[in-house]
Design a protein that fits this description.
It contains eight helices and eight strands, in the order αββαβββαβββααααα. Strands 5-4-6-7 form a four-stranded antiparallel beta sheet, with helices on one face. A two-stranded antiparallel sheet has the order 1-2. The longest helix has about 30 residues. It is globular.
């Protein structure tokens, strides 16, 4: 059942992303020639007033085809002749839709929670070497410039320093306290308190649910950037990345194991939480300035707007097309490598 849920989740994420582009285009009066889920030959299609709606046989993506995407076709409602700000809105809308979906899923999940872990210190182990500098009631605002919303954020950023020296900002009695170059090393105090500090929680209210859902969505964005930085720096290898096959397997494992230990209701909430993370992940990844992704297309729109302002000329459409085509080939090759790794891990298991 969880395999089916995982596959349906990916289908929904694709449709929502393309629906974001579609909705923005329609609202801005840009002609949409086709709205399609999947690739390859169509297994179902319906011609609307001006848009062809289709479901295709390969559920590996989807697209929203605008009139004049590859150049001016003479249609005043074509994409190519639209103002640069309209193009920006259309390109960003797909990722914004994925982010919004992730946020809404988190709201549903968090409405089931009893409360939320905070960064307000509840107890301090008197034997801790940090007992003199931290007091119950202190709220840790940031660690090394990273905003902290949950107690897990504190542990994460304290653990990512090779030197163990940090810049910590507290709020104590309404006043800001800064601890610069503060040496923080792991200390497991009583009752398993990390660093000898115990953090409190806040109750679930209607307002808190939306607030911490938004914080969690922003935290997902930061987690994606952390992984990308680790990948570039070599801390994470390509063989550790997971593609669609790996993510579907993860959702299935989490769902089944949680259902056995805690029941189906909790399992569905855990799976929904994972889907929310994937939705936000897709939003971030699609905005990267990588050829063939929305982020690179957005970059070209901004570059062309700047060139038109300065030099009254723009980058030829064919050159942009070459770059996106090359990027698509590279992305497909990367997907094949990641899928091979996913399948290899499944065989080993």
């Amino acid at each position: 059942m969880f395999l089916i849920i995982a596959i349906l989740a990916f289908c929904v994420l694709i449709i929502v992303h393309e629906l974001g582009h579609y909705t923005a285009g329609k609202l801005l009066n840009v002609r949409v020639n086709e709205f399609s889920f999947g690739m390859g030959p169509a297994i179902w299609k319906k011609q609307g007033k001006e848009t062809l709606y289709a479901v295709r046989c390969l559920p590996i993506g989807g697209y929203c085809a605008f009139e004049g995407e590859d150049g001016d076709t003479g249609d005043p409602r074509g994409y190519a002749v639209q103002a640069w700000w309209k193009k920006c809105i259309i390109l960003v809308a797909g990722c914004a839709a994925n982010f919004l979906l992730g946020f809404l899923i988190l709201c549903v999940v968090f409405f089931q929670a009893w409360g939320f872990n905070t960064t307000v210190i509840d107890t301090v182990d008197p034997e801790s070497p940090y007992a003199e500098d931290f007091q119950p009631g202190d709220e840790i605002i940031s660690v090394d410039g990273h905003r902290t919303w949950f107690s897990g954020n504190v542990s994460l950023y304290l653990s990512r320093s090779a030197t163990g020296v940090h810049d910590i900002v507290l709020e104590r009695g309404g006043e800001r306290v800064e601890l610069e170059n503060y040496a923080f090393t792991p200390y497991e105090g009583e009752n398993g308190m990390t660093y000898g500090l115990g953090f409190g929680a806040t109750e679930r209210t209607f307002f808190n649910t939306f607030k911490y859902s938004f914080y969690s969505a922003l935290d997902f964005v930061r987690q994606v950037w952390i992984v990308l930085c680790d990948l570039v720096s070599g801390l994470v290898g390509l063989d550790e990345m997971a593609g669609v096959v790996g993510i579907v397997d993860l959702i299935n494992d989490v769902g089944n194991s949680t259902a056995e230990s805690s029941g189906m209701g909790v399992a569905l909430m855990d799976v929904a939480y994972l889907v929310a993370f994937i939705a936000v992940n897709l939003a971030v990844m699609n905005m990267l300035p990588i050829p063939a992704l929305d982020g690179c297309r957005l970059l070209f729109v901004l570059l062309n707007a700047l060139m038109m302002l300065v030099a009254r000329r723009r980058i030829p459409d064919r050159y942009e097309g070459y770059i996106h085509a090359a990027g698509m080939v590279c992305m497909l090759a990367l997907m094949v490598v990641i899928m091979y790794n996913d399948i290899s891990r499944l065989i080993v298991q």
